[in-house]
Design goal:
The protein has helices at 53-59, 176-180; strands spanning 4-6, 15-18, 22-26, 30-32, 37-40, 45-49, 69-73, 78-81, 84-86, 103-108, 112-117, 120-124, 127-134, 142-150, 153-157, 162-167, 185-188, 191-193, 196-200, 205-208, 210-211, 213-216, 219-223, 236-239, 247-248, 250-253, 256-260, 274-277, 280-281, 284-286, 289-293, 299-302, 312-314, 317-321. It is mostly beta strands. It has two helices and 34 strands. It starts with a strand and ends with a strand. Mean pLDDT is 83; it is low at 3-10, 54-65 and 170-180. It is globular and about 50 Å long.
Length: 325
């Protein structure tokens, strides 16, 4: 049992689990399956991947290594705050795919009101903090809403920093969903606010098929850095999934993006400070500062696979981009 468990309060108040200071090796992901719960730590609380493969091979303990996320959220009305997550395998170099835990915090399914606050995530092989809804984790359809990622510090990710996504189905407002009988899922009403994100292989912040959300006051450095598997990254990406999952009304404001590296794979020739593309309507991109893009745009709005419209791009500063402003 991790930390100290406090019983749930009555009258609908939120119960809590407080982790006492210490390093907690996780053989399997820590699953938050109960709603109306706060999981909190304090100075000195670190959740780590269990053991490196070399140690377990010598000890003869078999495959006892956590290859999933460090924390998996499977309930609504959950708060995770004030913990440090480290997915590193000691002795390895950059966080390539296959090294470290495969994610920090994963929020999956038709959930609402999940706050990830003041959480540190480093040395994961995929994405540090992600929330996804699709026809697999929500087989009867549904909505993922109210995901807030605030005040987190993210460093060294083989893939992305923060990713919020609706994948594999059509948007809720498409009448063809009714005709085809497709499973309908939706993702909206999220905030990515005041985080520091550095050294990612893919996008530092990515919203795919996500509407009515805000990406505000994040500090981002060294994007598209770990590209051994041919991935590429933008500082902030808002994407309509080739137009299959149109996006409405996303605000991108007061973010600072410094240094977007040249992608290793020529399959995707450019990486951009802020990309708003493929089926985006009503995006507002204002008061951002983008600098040092190796090959790409400072701010891109449009789409080669689906048109975007009714965007506002204003009062942004773009410096040192070896492409277009």
């Amino acid at each position: 049992v991790l930390g100290k468990v406090y019983p749930a309060k009555t009258n609908g108040q939120i119960g809590s689990v407080r982790l006492l200071p210490g390093v907690y090796p996780l053989v399997t992901p820590l699953v938050v399956s109960r709603g109306d719960l706060t999981l909190s730590g304090s100075t000195g609380v670190v959740l780590v991947r269990a053991q490196p493969p070399s140690f377990q091979a010598k000890a003869g303990e078999g495959a006892m290594m956590n290859t999933g996320p460090l924390i998996s959220v499977a309930a609504s009305n959950v708060v995770i705050r004030d913990v440090q997550l480290d997915g590193a395998v000691p002795g390895t170099g950059s966080p390539k795919m296959g090294d470290g835990a495969s994610g920090g915090v994963v929020i999956s399914g038709a959930l609402s009101n999940v706050l990830v606050e003041n959480v540190g995530v480093r040395n994961v092989s995929t994405t540090a903090i992600s929330a996804v809804i699709n026809d697999t984790n929500a087989p009867t359809g549904g909505v993922q809403s109210g995901i807030v990622v605030r005040g987190c510090v993210i460093d060294r990710c083989g893939m992305g920093g923060v990713s919020l996504a609706k994948r594999g189905t059509r948007s809720l407002n498409q009448s063809s969903d009714i005709v085809t009988g497709a499973i309908v899922v939706r993702s909206d009403g999220h905030q990515v606010f005041g985080n520091r994100i550095s050294r990612t292989g893919s996008h530092a912040v990515c919203l795919t098929g996500v509407s009515h959300s805000q990406v505000v006051a994040n500090q981002i450095q060294h994007v598209s850095l770990y590209n051994e598997v041919g991935v590429f990254g933008h500082g902030i990406a808002v994407d309509g999934n080739c137009g299959n999952d149109p996006v409405e009304t996303v605000v991108i404001s007061a973010n600072i993006i410094d240094t977007v590296h040249l992608p290793a794979s020529k399959r995707n020739a450019t990486c951009t400070g802020i990309e708003i593309a493929d089926g985006i309507s009503g995006a507002i991109c204002t008061s951002n500062h983008v600098s040092n893009v190796a090959l790409g745009y400072g701010v891109y709005f449009g789409g080669g696979l689906a048109p975007s419209s009714n965007g506002v791009i204003s009062s942004n500063v773009v410096i040192g981009c070896n492409g277009y402003g």
